[in-house]
Amino acid sequence: MLQAAPRLLITLRREQDGEAVVASPWLQALQAFHRLAWGSVLDAGDLPALLTQPDSQVFRADTQALPEPARRPRPALAAGLLNKTFSAGAYQQLLDCPYQYYAARCLRLSPPEEIRLALSRADYGARVHQCLQAFHTDVPGLPGPFPEPLGDHNRAAAERLLNGIAAAVFAQDLADNFEHHGWLRQWQRQIPEYLDWQQERSLTWQVDRAEVRLEIEPEPGLRLQGQLDRIDRQAAALSVLDYKTGTVPAQAEVDAGEAVQLPVYAQLAGTDSGTVVSEAIYLALGNDGTVKTTVWLEDEALGRLARDNGARLVEVVGEMEAAQPLPAWGDSRTCRWCDMALLCRRQAWEETEESSKAGGTGQ
């Protein structure tokens, strides 16, 4: 190539990121040969002059303004988008992240339920709830309920009945997928532990209702609703139970008003029946086969939380109606499973905020 061309231009990069770049051995050998043969270096003397010509300058062809950096979303709710019927889940979502609530429930952008070939943990929880409902109350099409107070004399009969209910509830699932036997066995291994807990519980509380759907109006036009797993009765007082086969909120979260399900259910039960709700508990049905109460609210603490949660909902709904912003909190635990992540773009606006802080401009 060197012999065939009358003139040849070889270019190389002299530096990168402020550091000198060494020429390739081939080029170094060529430069050394040229110095020895002709006594001069291989530099294109006219090249620097060409670089200063206007036609050689890089210019910006795109004259459109760059997009604004991503900002934390803080939309205000437009008139007509607010659904004033709240479940405990919707209320919790509003507290966890107002923007997630806005996108999922006001704009109705929640993804459709995916078709599953195997039971999920949520499906398993629903089956366990149905088993316990049939054991304690009448459910058409299923065995049960157990007709008498649970004690040592009838414990074996109770266990046979609850196992029979479990087999009936899981029957279609077993026909659909052999792997579902694992879910049935997990629950059946837990049945003795549950009956131990229930036998002790029945000394002071009696099952009143199960899978009860209630709705109240904290103020005109605002509806609060929920489906309570179980309500027990003791003389003139009620106890609200919620079964948990998955994650259970911590006691501290419930006490601080950050987890609202139990106080909401206590408010629903108390307002609907006109009876004092003196207790609300989470009954955790753990993966390890244990059955235990993990969160316990009683008496004045429960009443205060129920009132405060109801009042807060009324206040927050009023703020939304007044077009107060609904910001994305950016809480890592909430964002971890958020279906609105692509819409929110948390990573982009967090980088913008960090850059602003680093530059001293604030947000």
Descriptive overview:
With 363 residues, the protein is α/β, with parallel strands linked by helices. Among the domains are: 1-53, no CATH class; 121-201; 206-319, Lambda Exonuclease, Chain A (Alpha-Beta Complex), CATH 3.90.320. Helix content is 43%, strand content 17%. It is built from 14 helices and 8 strands. The strands form 2 sheets. Strands 3, 4, 5, 6, 7 and 8 form a 6-stranded mixed β-sheet that branches. A hairpin with a 2-residue loop joins β5 (222-234) and β6 (237-244). The protein is elongated, with a radius of gyration of 34 Å.
Q: What fraction of the residues are assigned to beta strands by DSSP? A: 15-25%
**How would you describe the oligomerization state of the chains in this entry?**
single chain
Helix percent band: 40-55%
Number of strands: 8
**Rg on CA atoms, Å:** 34 Å
Largest sheet: 6 strands, mixed
- Alpha carbon gap, first and last residue: 60 Å
CATH class of the domain at 206-319: Alpha Beta
Secondary-structure-based class equals: alpha/beta
Instruction: Note the run of SSEs as H and E.
Output: EEHHEHHHHHHEEEHHEEHHHH
CATH architectural category of the domain at 206-319: Alpha-Beta Complex
Q: What are the low-pLDDT stretches, counting only 5+ consecutive residues below 50?
A: none
The coarse overall form would be elongated
* Global mean pLDDT: 92
List the total number of helices. Answer: 14
What's the CATH topology label of the domain at 206-319?
Answer: Lambda Exonuclease, Chain A
